[in-house]
Amino acid sequence: MTSPMTRTQDGAARTGVEVRMAGLSRHYGPVVALDKLDLTVQAGELIALLGPSGCGKTTTLRLLAGLEDADAGHITVGGRDVTHLSASKRDMGMVFQAYSLFPHMTARQNVAFGLRLRRIAAAERDKRAIEMLELVGLSAQADRYPHQISGGQQQRVALARALAIEPQVLLLDEPLSALDAKVRAQLRDEIRRIQLEVGTTTLFVTHDQEEALAIADRVGVMKDGRLEQLAPPTDVYSRPATSFVAEFVGLTNRLAGTVSGSTVTVRGRDLPLVDLSTPPGPAIALVRPEAVTLAADSSGDSGPLTGTVIAVTFLGATSRVTVDLGDTTILAQLTTADASELPAGSHVTLTIRPDPVLVSGDAPAVSEA
Amino acid sequence: MAAIASLGESGLATPAERPRGMQVRRRRRLNVFRYLVFTVFGLFFLLPLLATARFSLEGNRLGSWSLAAWKEIATYKGPPPLLPAIEIQLELAVATCVVVLVLLVPTMVWIRLRVQWISRVFEFLCLLPLTIPAIILVVGLAPIYNFIRHYQLSALTLFFAYVILALPYAYRALSAGLNAIDVTTISEAARSLGASWFTVIARVIVPNMGQAILNAMVLASALVLGEFTVAYLLLYNNLPVELFSISRNTPNASVIFSTSLASLLFAFALLLILSYAGRRRHRGRG
């Protein structure tokens, strides 16, 4: 996790503040958008809120920003209760999903807007605006209007504008979703670099699991207005707290097995359980495709861990291989070089790596998040 | 083989050329229709104006051209006097524009941001004056103006009635302007940067509605500059009412036509200036 105290470009130390949300609820008529959410963001930390549409992640951000009022609960920022404070007084910088630059102002004027409201002298304002534009690599576009720059550049200016006021908290509401894949990856890394540089406590909302796992100190997976799991990205991926998290983050095979003690037996193999309190008996084990390895089998023998390749999906460096086991199908993620040796129709034997797995009580199937 | 290839080529070329030929003929027919409509409507609007201009220059002495009627606009002593009527008409236009904008802009922005559910009702109320005949409006306003007359006799008080008449046009123009920008997002962005609601409206939204505000001003001004019925029925003397009385009371009809045409030209000039200013602002950004 990031240290709460970080250093800026000029070497000055800047400390983020802790954000605490307690029992936060929000209803839209009969729909529960947020259900008694408890979330603490450590000073200087970047938390990514991940979840499907309507899970309450944007509502959390909007309540924190003061753009909407909570029905119940409290929000404290740096120990100060801001629950009933208006958005303009919360000292939070926000970058929106939609392009939000003021169309009648140049990039420089946009960045300087918040500073102007804080009555900072024109010369100082201009200097800081240029510094911020340099930070996002857009000082050459300072005098361009929003319609004269690309979408990715607009979002960078929006980030510079949000950071220019040196906010206590930075809120990012799916800022990359309108951009193409390459720009998105570039800007994602840039956001992380800048966040580490300025050390602002940051809440990042996204529905893109790859984005969340790549950028965050901790990832919060949300469902139906509640946090299903809040943990570092590696834990969310390798030790999911619930079957929803396991299936939402990454690709999962659902294989029938039997729980006994601290293991679940899947197709004759014992796999350790994530949750040791799982009751014994039949269950569905959630196995990651990368835990499955394949080898060509020329013997033609049949068994619980043998099958026939029915499809190979090329993904670049890796490929996804679908294997028919007779009673079910299973996905395996292999390097493209390995997968190229197993064309459709090949007879293969499977090995399941004994990673800790989670079990679900539903019927067996293969699901993709 | 060559024959087959040649047949194939011609066979491919024909269907591609046919629609292109049809498109050209269709475009030509549309252009003819467009110019015809443009010419007919142009003549419909232009001929009365040309007749007015001619009469203002010739008067009842056909064949003798003179600018006397135009010079008389400034020196015409009446009765009734013309210059004060022109002044009051311009003041009415300015007052109406200011009041309409002050009333509508913040209200429409507020509705868009905070009480979207009321927008249909508000739209209905703003468009209502279009459906009410002037005489009904006058009957409704008469008691109010009878009361106002105890304190103020100036025709400037007409701005109140004109604000109501200008509401539908100004609303439509401003609504188009608001639709062209993402009001919610830019307001929220400004709020998160520390802007008060007043700052959001004055510094963020209004500057982005420049063209819509200019359009609303043009429409409101055009309406006020040509308004006769309400002023006449409420017994106030604005420019059209004065022109009407001149036409009834004096033999010098040319001055009526020169003044009417002058006020029309003034409205055109205003329209051109405002739209030119709007274009320059836009180009300045681009």
Describe the structure.
The complex is a heterodimer of chains A (about 375) and B (about 290). By secondary structure, chain A is α+β, with helices and mostly antiparallel strands. Helices cover about 25% and strands about 35% of the residues of chain A. Chain A is built from 9 helices and 23 strands. Chain A has helices at about 55-65, 105-115, 120-135, 150-165, 180-200, 210-215, 235-240, 245-250, 335-340; strands spanning about 5, 15, 20-30, 30-40, 45-50, 70-75, 80, 90-95, 170-175, 200-205, 220-225, 225-230, 250-260, 265, 270, 280-285, 290-295, 305-315, 320-325, 330-335, 345-350, 360, 365-369. In chain A, the strands form 5 sheets. Chain A has a 6-stranded mixed sheet, sandwiched between helices. In chain A, strands 13, 14, 15, 16, 22 and 23 form a 6-stranded antiparallel sheet that branches. In chain A, helix 2 packs across helix 3 (about 120-135) and helix 3 (about 120-135) crosses helix 4. The longest helix of chain A is centred in the middle third of the chain and has 18 residues, at about 180-200. Chain A is elongated, with a radius of gyration of 24 Å. The two termini of chain A are about 25 Å apart. In chain A, about 45% of the residues are buried. Chain B has about 290 residues and is mainly alpha-helical. The longest helix of chain B has about 55 residues, at about 1-60. Chain B has 2 domains: about 1-55, no CATH class; about 75-285, MetI-like fold (Orthogonal Bundle), CATH 1.10.3720. Chain B has helices spanning about 1-60, 70-75, 85-115, 120-130, 135-150, 160-180, 185-190, 195-205, 210-225, 230-235, 240-250, 255-285. Classes of the chains: A alpha+beta (about 375), B mainly alpha (about 290). The interface of A and B includes residues 67, 100 and 147 of A.
